[in-house]
Design goal:
Elements (H helix, E strand, L loop, with lengths): L3 E5 L5 H10 L4 E5 L3 H11 L2 E2 L3 H5 L4 E4 L4 H8 L14 E4 L5 H13 L3 E4 L2 E2 L1 H6 L3 E7 L1 H11 L3 E6 L5 H29 L4 H8 L7 H11 L9 H18 L4 H15 L10 H7 L2
Parallel strand pairs: 1-2, 1-4, 2-3, 4-5, 5-6, 8-9
Antiparallel strand pairs: 6-8, 7-8
Length: 292
């Protein structure tokens, strides 16, 4: 039997994720989005309902989910004047899928506990395609009982979900994810660039090397569009730079050295200068091809 839930933030990720709570989970969902027309559209498509503020959407909900833009957006929809925490009942759980800082996750967790509310920081990986296919990977931080309560609902739109530690641990794990990705994408960009300049059939080359030690999700899913210089889709460079800013800030705090991540962040700034802020992150190869 479905439970009453609320969903805050219907962007390219949140829109399909919220839909799976209805279609797969059978839950009642009240949606809020900053642009009300999108909330109305979502409610019409998914037989849900919508509310004009996070506070009203969350009123009486057992679980509230959010997927918004950044730390300040998260503060606004939780503890802001019209935030969800002002109407959530004791014993309910707030699950945050925003990619944000570990500091804000701990801050909001503390504010939730003061009100008798559970909080799980739960950033996701898998991009728009993963959200649309209900196949995301979810990295969680928080208290075990809160995670246990929310796990089956998160399962409506994920293929993998795990609690990795206390508050903020989900965000820290997402930072590891982004640090690993940017190094892979830069390496793949250089390999394809080199191979094309050498006169190789790169589709054939990648078909071979993807079966060996060089294989990765990025190689399997992005090599064809990288070869043909198509970037108008996927996870945007602007978003990755936001995420890398979080990673590099946390690295300064915990004394980690991230030379490759810092370098690739600068490469992405050059992609932005080319007008590619909304291009997929695989557009790193555009910088190399431009220099031919």
């Amino acid at each position: 039997m479905g439970v009453r839930t609320a969903w805050i933030g219907l962007g390219v990720m949140g829109y399909p994720m919220a839909g799976y709570l209805v279609s797969k989970g059978g839950h009642d969902v009240v949606a809020y989005n900053r642009t009300s027309a999108k909330a109305e559209k979502w409610a019409g498509e998914h037989k849900g309902s919508h509310a004009p503020t996070p506070k009203q959407a969350a009123d009486g909900a057992d679980f509230v989910f959010a997927c918004v833009g950044n730390d300040d957006d998260l503060r606004s929809v939780t503890i802001g004047p019209d935030g969800a925490f002002h109407s959530m009942k004791k014993g309910s759980v707030f699950v945050d899928h925003t990619t944000a800082s570990a500091d804000v996750a701990r801050e909001i967790h503390s504010a939730a506990k003061e009100r008798g509310i559970g909080f799980v920081d739960a950033p996701v990986s898998g991009g728009q395609a993963g959200a649309e296919n209900g196949a995301l990977t979810v990295m969680c931080g928080g208290e075990q009982e809160d995670y246990d309560a929310a796990e089956s609902l998160i399962g409506c739109y994920s293929k993998s979900c795990r609690l990795l530690g206390g508050p903020g641990s989900g965000q820290l794990a997402k930072m590891c994810n982004q640090i690993a990705i940017v190094g892979l994408v830069q390496g793949l960009s250089e390999a394809i660039h080199f191979g094309k300049n050498a006169g190789l059939d790169m589709e054939a080359v990648v078909d071979v090397i993807s079966k060996g030690a060089a294989g990765s999700w990025q190689m399997e899913n992005r090599y064809k569009t990288m070869i043909t210089n198509q970037y108008e889709f996927g996870f945007a460079v602007d978003w990755m730079r936001k995420d890398l800013g979080i990673c590099l800030g946390e690295a300064r705090n915990n004394k980690s050295h991230l030379p490759v991540a810092a370098l690739v962040d600068q490469f992405y700034s050059q992609v932005q200068a080319m007008g590619g802020g909304r291009w997929d992150t695989s557009s790193l190869i555009a910088l190399l091809d431009k220099k031919k």
